[in-house]
Amino acid sequence: MGARNPVRRTKTARELAETFGASTRTVQRIIAEPRADYEARAIEKRRRAQQMRGEGASYREIADELGVGIGSVSALLRTPVPAEAKSA
What we know:
Order of helices and strands: HHHHHH
Shape: elongated
Radius of gyration: 17 Å
Distance between the termini: 27 Å
Helix content: 55-70%
Largest sheet: none
């Protein structure tokens, strides 16, 4: 299903469930980001990390730019970007 107007949330599903008197799973299902949007964002982050590394940026610079940890940068650089996403 997914949210009609997806917004990154600041509260956990458990906190929202307690506030609205619903189950955690119900809240997750209602406010979930559509899978295609999540995957597109993840591919773009990988592409940007690999581009920055190709330009000579350090892991720390990439981490700061993307707002992730250094370990996450390592994972982003190891995971290939799908061929159709490279040209986009």
